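BUG-463 | component: ligand-complex export | severity: low

The export step for magnesium ion jobs runs without errors, but we want the raw record kept on the ticket for reference. Input record follows.
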Amino acid sequence: MSEEAKKLFGTNGFRGVVGRELTPEIAIKFGMAVGTYFKEGRIAVGMDGRTSSDMLRSALVAGLQRVGIKVYDLGLVPTPVLQKYVREHGYLSGGVIVTASHNPPEYNGFKVVGENGVELADEEERKIETIFMNESFNYTEWFGFKETTVISDAISFYARELLKHIDLDLIKRNKIRIVADFGHGVSSLSVPDLLIKADCEIISINSDINGRFPNRPPEPTPENLRNLSKAVRAYDADLGVAYDGDGDRAIFCDEKGMIWWGDVSGTIIARYLAEKEGINKTVTGINSSLIVEKVLNPRGVKVIRTKVGSRNITKVMIERGVIWGFEENGGGIYGPHQYVRDGGITTMLMLQVISYYKMPLSKLCENIPRMFQVKTKVHIEDFKKRSIIMNKLVRLYEGESFYKIEKLDGIKVWINKINWVLIRPSGTEPIIRIFSEAETEFKAKKLAEDAKKRINEVMSESK
Ligand code: MG
């Protein structure tokens, strides 16, 4: 099936603006499609705290029941809590979480996971899409409907299971004071308990679940985390952490108020695991900083790069037996716990690292070379033209002599050994994304601007 025909799912499940691409009517149909795919199995359902989540959850459940699915309702839960619950309960065939993660408040969506708690692969999602488009639903009769069972202990189950992988005594000895910015998302339901069990002193901000996200947008970007920085300094805390709307991403702030992006924190955790557990491989996306290799290669850790998207990282980790992988946006994946992004385990691992070295995060980041990244995008008029544009762009870059060109995901052009620009089309929106990295902000901006210019040139030629 071509990319254009892949209508429902993007890189991270099915997302859309509520009332436009995503209505309760569509949610019922989606439920029937997912239920037909799982063939009368048992499915866990959960949701984030968005204003539309409860409505969409009800519709989704109705759709699932219409095709004979037995629903286990976990209620309000972070995505990794639902994933862990599905993974550890053999009677469940899969799960669906109603969430739009870090997207603006008007969005919502569905993420479908299989029996191992991992997001379905592309081929599986396409099967659901085909059922949805053809409306080939496996309707059941009155005698086949099954009542929902409410599960109320998913979060405590998660905490218990997660902490089996953490050295609590080590963290307890350090009496860490931490500011946690929940960003009005659902991680405020699961993370405090983990921190309390580690004897941390917790100062929480934006901990009320609120689908309007009044004090900060659900995406934990440095611009959105200024209050976290301030709070860490004001309370003289040892560490700060911020989550996205559904709690699978964690971004850290050092004790001086500096926000560190996910490729740095992921690298710090990998370096610790290399020293302590002897790991010799880690996995990250092609858009992560070069500092990952710079820090880890000299320590004997091979860095495997994948296409952008956590599912690609998960896939390689499982295939090659890698226990730690991460994304630049703060998604950390610890395989022994579960092969999906999890803000809770990432937080606890970071606390363990700080406790092990008895060093604050700023000190742990001290020897990491400073690199600057710029992220921007170009809008394209016609979504269908993006492959034509990308092909022309590849030819344009290949016609010149650059240090290196990689074509794993879009095109990554290395100007020299340390400066690069990555250009890749979005899977869901009519945009082409640009990432660049250099040793100065000025250089990184220039690289991104140059890429933008080239894309615009190619676009005007393609009209
Ligand atoms: Mg998320």
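Assignee comment: Attached the raw record above. The chain is about 35% helix and 20% strand.
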